[in-house]
Structures are given as structure tokens and as C-alpha cells.
Amino acid sequence: MQQFKVSGMSCGHCVRAITQAIQMLDQAAKVEVDLAAGLVRVESSLNAEQVQTAIREEGYQAELP
To answer: HMA domain location, by residue (predicted)?
Structure first.
């Protein structure tokens, strides 16, 4: 499972936007978002760069912790 530190998330809309962006690239991806910690965990066939790009295209900063 990959983990990313994501800044700018604050609500359920953020969670949905990030989850949908990742699942558009990999429908089978499992996405867990921890708003309080600012973490997104992804289990997917996508590599880290692909996941980061999907998150960034939604307007959030995503870094590997």
C-alpha cells in the first residue's frame, strides 16, 4: 500500500474528488483518506507517480512522506 502526505484536504468533497481521480485510472484501487492526518493510502496497480499526478490534477499537493 502506498501512502501520500496530501495538503489542502478539508472535507468529504476532498475525499470523493481524490478517490474518484485515482479510481478513474484504476477502478479496482482501494483508497483510504485520513483527513485529520492529511494522509491518503492507496492500494493499486498504479505506480506512485501516477497516483501523485491524479491527486495533483485535482488541485492538492501530494508527497511521499
So the answer is: 1-63
